[in-house]
Design goal:
Rossmann fold, seven-stranded parallel beta sheet, Alpha-Beta Plaits, about 500 residues
C-alpha cells in the first residue's frame, strides 16, 4: 500500500529529498511548487518504503491503511492530484519503479579555504531558523540568534492553532539548532531598544532579518477601535499564551462579555479565520490535551460561543483558506457548518465550475438561508459571502456589525482577519505600500550586509515550508557576496564581546 500526505503538510519538501523513487510532487524545481496547498504522493509510484514519513518534520505522512477515520479521505486526495495529469518525473510505462530525475545541479560553489562567517539572524520563527539551519549545515558559519521574546519559536510556537500539535512539532526540528556549538542565542533582545541594526552589523559579517509581518491590517471602518473589536493575531495569541497578549484579552471568568453574547463575527476567509472559528466552537474536551492556554480553555469551557459568522467580501470561489483547513472544519461532526445563501450569486458560484480545491469543498457544504437566530443544540459556523462590513456598532463596546447590504448582525466579539503587513526595521529602508523591506534576492536595497527572509521579504504569503526555499535564496545571496568580497568590513577586534558588553549595560538578558 502507498503512503499519503495529510492535512498538516508544511510543504518544506523534506519528504521530496528523502523519497528514493521521486514520487512526491510538486518538487521545489516544479513551477507549481509554491501554488499548491500541500504536497502529494503518487500512489502508482510509491514503493511503501516509509522514507518520506521518517523525514516529515510535522508527522503528516502515513500508510494509507493506517489513516484514521478523519484522515481517510487523504488517500483519494493524493491520488486525485495525479489523475489525468502528466507529472515531471512520473513513471514510465515499461517499469513501475523507474523515474526520470532532474539533471544534477550545484547551485553554490564555495572556496575550500573560505573563512567562517559570523551571521546574526533576527527572529527565531520558521524563516529565521531555515536560514540558520542552511548556514549551520552547509557552511562553517557561526550564528547568533536574536529574538525580542524570551522563548524562541515565533509563529510555530504562537501562531499555529493548539489543536494542530503535529504542525507545532516542526519547532522540535528547529530547536535542535538552539544548542548547536556554533550558535549563540540572545533572547529577550529587541532591536531598537537593546541594540541597533548598525551595532549588530558592526559585530557580524552579515545580518539576516526574519522579523515577519507583525502589523494587522485595518478595515478602515467606523467602530473598529471599540472594545471587543480585535485583530486576529490577538485572539490567536490569547489561546496560544503569547506573552504580549493579556490572558483576559478575549474572555475570562472576570471579563466574559466578549464570549458571553453567543455570536462572534470574523472578517476574512483565510486560514487564520478558519482556525479562529474552529477553536472558538470546539468542545473543551477536544482541546484539553493540547497546548492551549489554560485561561483560554476556561473561558471557552463555558460554552458561550454558539455561532461564528465568517464574512467574505466576494464569492465562495475566492475563499482564501486552503483546502486542508476547510476539509478539517467541514469534517468536524460536533459543529454545524453552513453557507448562508442570502445572495443568488452564492448559489451560482457553488453550482458552477470549481475554481480551486477549496472552492470544490465549499460546493459540498450545506447551504441554506440563515436567519441568524442562535442555534440551541450545537455550535455553528456560518460562511456569509458577498458580505462587506461598513461599520462595527455598539455604545462603549462592540454590540454588532452592520453590513453594506443593510444587514445587522448582533455580536459580542469581532475578529478582524484582514491580513498582515511588515513593520519598519529601524535603520533599514521600508516600502510602506507593500509593507516589506525592499530587496534583491534577499539583499536589502542600499544596506550592504543586511538581508531579509520570510514575510518581511515577500509579504504575508505561503506556509511554513515556503520559508525553506525563501531562506535558501537569501543565504545563497549572502554567500555569493561573501565569496565576491562584497560584505562590509566589521570591527573584528573584540569579535562579539563589544556587542555582549553593550547589551549587558542596557540590562538585556544574558546570552544563552
Amino acid at each position: 500500500m502507498a503512503f499519503a500526505i495529510t492535512q498538516t503538510c508544511c510543504t518544506d519538501a523534506s519528504c521530496v529529498a528523502a523519497c528514493p523513487v521521486n514520487c512526491i510532487h510538486p518538487t521545489p524545481d516544479e513551477p507549481d511548487f509554491a501554488t499548491t496547498d500541500m504536497l502529494y504522493v503518487d500512489p502508482r509510484a510509491c514503493i511503501d518504503c516509509g522514507a518520506c514519513a521518517d523525514a516529515c518534520p510535522v508527522d503528516a505522512i502515513f500508510p494509507v491503511e493506517r489513516l484514521s477515520a478523519s484522515l481517510a479521505g487523504y488517500a483519494e486526495v493524493n491520488a486525485a492530484h495525479y489523475d489525468g495529469k502528466p507529472v515531471a518525473g512520473a513513471l514510465r510505462e515499461d517499469s513501475p519503479l523507474f523515474h526520470d530525475w532532474y539533471p544534477l545541479r550545484f547551485t553554490r560553489s564555495l572556496p575550500a579555504d573560505m573563512a567562517p562567517l559570523d551571521v546574526a539572524v533576527v527572529g527565531t520563527g520558521p524563516a529565521g531558523m531555515y536560514a540558520a539551519q542552511d548556514l549551520l549545515l552547509h557552511t562553517s558559519s557561526r550564528v547568533t540568534l536574536v529574538d525580542r521574546l524570551r522563548t524562541p519559536g515565533g509563529l510555530v510556537r504562537y501562531g499555529v492553532a493548539p489543536d494542530h500539535p503535529s504542525t507545532k512539532r516542526i519547532g522540535e526540528s528547529f530547536a535542535r539548532f538552539h544548542t548547536h556549538p556554533r550558535v549563540r542565542m540572545r533572547l529577550g533582545t529587541e532591536v531598537g531598544r537593546d541594540v541597533t541594526a548598525a551595532e549588530l552589523l558592526a559585530q557580524h559579517d552579515a545580518v539576516i532579518w526574519a522579523v515577519g509581518a507583525p502589523e494587522s491590517r485595518t478595515l478602515g471602518i467606523e467602530g473598529e477601535d471599540l472594545p471587543g473589536s480585535l485583530p486576529a493575531d490577538t485572539v490567536v495569541g490569547w489561546y496560544n499564551g503569547h506573552p504580549d497578549v493579556p490572558r483576559d484579552a478575549v474572555g475570562s471568568a472576570e471579563l466574559g462579555a466578549d464570549l458571553g453574547d453567543g455570536r462572534v463575527v470574523v472578517v476574512g476567509t483565510g486560514n487564520v479565520s478558519v482556525d479562529v472559528a474552529r477553536i472558538l466552537t470546539a468542545r473543551p474536551s477536544d482541546l484539553r490535551d493540547t497546548p492551549i492556554d489554560r485561561h483560554a480553555l476556561d473561558a471557552l469551557g463555558a460554552g458561550a460561543v454558539r455561532e461564528v459568522v465568517v464574512l467574505g467580501r466576494r464569492g465562495p470561489e475566492t475563499v482564501a483558506a486552503t483546502a486542508p483547513e476547510l476539509r478539517e472544519l467541514l469534517d468536524r461532526t460536533p459543529v454545524e457548518v453552513v453557507i448562508d445563501e442570502h445572495d443568488p450569486r452564492i448559489g451560482e458560484s457553488l453550482d458552477g465550475p470549481a475554481r480551486s480545491e477549496a472552492h470544490r469543498l465549499l460546493q459540498r457544504a450545506r447551504r441554506e438561508k440563515v436567519d441568524h437566530s442562535l442555534p440551541a443544540d450545537r455550535p455553528r459556523v456560518v460562511f456569509r459571502f458577498h458580505a462587506t462590513p461598513d461599520r462595527i456598532t455598539g455604545t462603549g463596546r462592540v454590540q454588532g456589525v452592520h453590513l453594506a447590504d443593510g444587514t445587522d448582525l448582533a455580536a459580542g466579539l469581532v475578529v478582524r482577519a484582514a491580513g498582515h503587513r511588515g513593520r519598519p526595521v529601524p535603520g533599514l529602508p521600508f516600502d510602506d505600500d507593500l509593507g516589506v523591506v525592499p530587496h534583491d534576492a534577499g539583499r536589502v536595497a542600499g544596506a550592504l550586509g543586511h538581508y531579509v527572509v520570510g514575510w518581511i521579504k515577500r509579504g504575508p504569503s505561503g506556509g511554513i515550508g515556503t520559508n525553506r526555499t525563501c531562506a535558501a535564496e537569501t543565504v545563497g545571496s549572502l554567500l555569493d557576496d561573501a565569496v565576491a568580497g562584497r560584505l562590509p568590513a566589521r570591527a573584528r577586534g573584540g569579535s562579539l564581546r563589544a556587542l555582549v558588553r553593550g547589551l549587558r549595560h542596557r540590562g538585556a538578558p544574558p546570552i544563552r
